[in-house]
Amino acid sequence: MAEEQKKYSAEFVGSAARFKELPAPEGEEYAVLGRSNVGKSTFINHSLACGPLARVSKKPGKTTLANLYRLEDGLFWVDLPGYGYAEASADEKDRWSKLIADYCDNRSNLAGIIWLLDIRHPGAKADMEAYNWLGEIGRPVLPVLTKGDKLSRSRQKRQVKEFREIFAFGEEPVIYSSLQHGSRAVFWDRFNAWRKGGNR
Ligand SMILES: Nc1nc2c(ncn2[C@@H]2O[C@H](COP(=O)(O)OP(=O)(O)OP(=O)(O)O)[C@@H](O)[C@H]2O)c(=O)[nH]1
Ligand SMILES: [Mg+2]
After folding, report:
1. What are the tens digits of pLDDT across the range 3-61?
2. Ligand 1 atom at shortest distance from the alpha carbon of 63
């Protein structure tokens, strides 16, 4: 079946406000990481095409827990809270950063990070900080540039170039739009190749 029409079976496994509350590690797991409001939850729902799974909002700060989903073939994804949401309380921000850091540092079955960046904002401060931190933890990263529909094709190309100048991505960024069916196939092709290549 064409990837565009394929629906993935995916189910919610559980949530955690703190690292130690996460369901036990099982299978091959990938985290969906990115700035608050970049489109992480939307990306999960759209790329899996399995009906609404992750909660989405126009306002940043929607996802406040790590939410674990079981996909097919022993694959798991985790929707994380966003970083860089200035309006959240200091306590909330601290808890989110600790959850993200503890998770990415310590989760034993974490195979890689799907890092979402808004295609319109290369070099946003919070992403620069995340980049430095991702370099330190050394997990494989697949960059995905979200909201591609907001820009023309030629503008998209220029943005990709700019992102590549700012960040030394090991992988070519994937352009994604939750308004375009075609994004799904493009993403899954790239994700599967990245997985099979041992994320290198
Ligand atoms: N035009 C467009 N809008 C998008 C796209 N992806 C997400 N959005 C919108 O961006 C907003 C934020 O989406 P979410 O998926 O809730 O973002 P998030 O990264 O999960 O946010 P937090 O949970 O707050 O960290 C929503 O209004 C979405 O409809 C996209 O590809 N194109
Ligand atoms: Mg979210």
Report:
1. 555 667 889 999 999 999 999 999 999 999 999 999 999 999 999 887 777 787 788 77
2. 23
Cα gap 49→97, rounded to integer Å: 29
- Residue 56, pLDDT score: 79
Ligand 1 centre from 147 Cα, in Å?
8
Determine if ligand 1 sits within 6 Å of the CB of residue 14.
no
Query: What residue ranges do the domains of the chain occupy?
Result: 11-196
Other Cβ atoms closer than 10 A to 84 = 20
Q: Is the CB of 45 under 6 A from ligand 1?
A: no
Which residue is closest in CA terms to ligand 1's atom 14?
A: 39
- Report which protein residue has its CA nearest ligand 1's atom 7: 39
C-alpha distances in Å from residue 49, one per residue of 43, 76, 121, 144: 10, 15, 27, 17
CATH 3.40.50.300 fits 11-196, yes or no: yes
Q: What is the pTM of this model?
A: 0.94
Asked if residue 120 has its Cβ within 6 Å of ligand 1, the reply is: no
Owner of token pair 């309006």: 87
